[in-house]
Amino acid sequence: MYNKNIKLFIAILIIAYAGYQFYEGLVGNGIMYLLLSTIFIFLYFKNEFILLAFLKLRKQKFEDAKKWLDKIKNPNSALTTKQQGYFNYLNGIMVSQTNMNEAEKYFKTAISLGLSMDHDLAMAKLNLAGIAFSKRRRQEANKLLYEAQKLDKRNMLTDQIKMMKQQMKKAQMPNLHYGSPTSSRQNRRSRR
Fold first, then answer.
1. SS3 of 109, please?
2. Within 10 Å of residue 161's Cβ, how many Cβ atoms?
3. pLDDT one-digit tens code per residue, 137-182
4. Cα angle for residues 128, 131, 134 (degrees, 5° grid)
5. In this structure, what is the dihedral angle of CA atoms 82, 60, 147, 87, given to the nearest 10 degrees?
6. 49: which residues sit within 8 A by CB, 6+ positions away?
7. Structural domain boundaries of the chain?
8. Cα dist from 139 to 124, 136, 150, 169, whole Å
9. Measured between alpha carbons, how far is 113 from 107 in angstroms, rounded to an integer?
10. How far apart are CA 63 and CA 66, in angstroms?
11. In the chain, at which residue ranges do the beta strands (DSSP E only) sit?
C-alpha cells in the first residue's frame, strides 16, 4: 500500500517526462505519458482498494470486501480525508451485522470526516438512526432519520426510511393486552 503522496510524486515525474518527450519532438509519446499520469492522479483521489471493496459489496461478498479493506494498513497516511470517510463507512456497513457499538463508531467517524455523495451520507445517518433506535435513544434516532430523509434527494432510501418510521411508530404505541391488569380494571368499571 503506497502513501498517497508517492502516487502524486510518480504522477509529477511522469508529467515531467512527458514534457521532455514533447521537447524532443515525440508528441505521441508525450501524450501517452500524460494519459498514464492521469491514472496516478485518479488513484490519488480514489483509492484502488476502496474501489475494489465497493465492487465486492455490490456483489454482496462481504468477506472479499473486508480483505480489500484490510490491505490498507495505515489509513491516515495512505488515504485523503474523504477516502478515510469512505474507509470508515465501508467498515461500518460490514461490522453493523455483528457489532453495533463498533459500527456506530465507524459511522460517526465517517460522517465527521465527510462523504462526498449525499446518498452515502444519508445511508450512514440512516444506519446510525437504526442503531440509536435499538439503543432506545428515540430523539437522536428521529433527528438522524430526518437528516437522512433530507439528504436523500434522489429518493433512493425512501422505502428504508418509511420502514424505519413505521417501526418507530409501532414501538411508541402502548402495548395493551386483553389479559393485562389495566384492561381487566377497565372491563370491571364498564360493567358497573
1. helix
2. 18
3. 888 888 888 888 888 788 787 788 888 888 888 877 665 555 445 4
4. 150
5. -20
6. 1, 68, 69, 71, 72
7. 1-45
8. 17, 9, 17, 13
9. 10
10. 5
11. none
> Taking a C-beta distance cutoff of 8 angstroms, is the pair 114, 82 a contact?
yes
Q: With contact defined as beta carbons under 8 Å apart, do 104 and 128 qualify? A: yes
Residues found in the chain: 192
Task: Output the pTM of the full model.
Answer: 0.76
Separation of alpha carbons 65 and 91, rounded Å: 9
Q: Would you put residue 177 in left (φ > 0), alpha (ψ -120 to 50) or beta?
A: beta
Site of grid cell 436523500: 152
Which cell numbers hold the place of 146?
Answer: 430526518
pLDDT of residue 21: 94
Q: Are 107 and 126 in contact (CB under 8 A)?
A: no
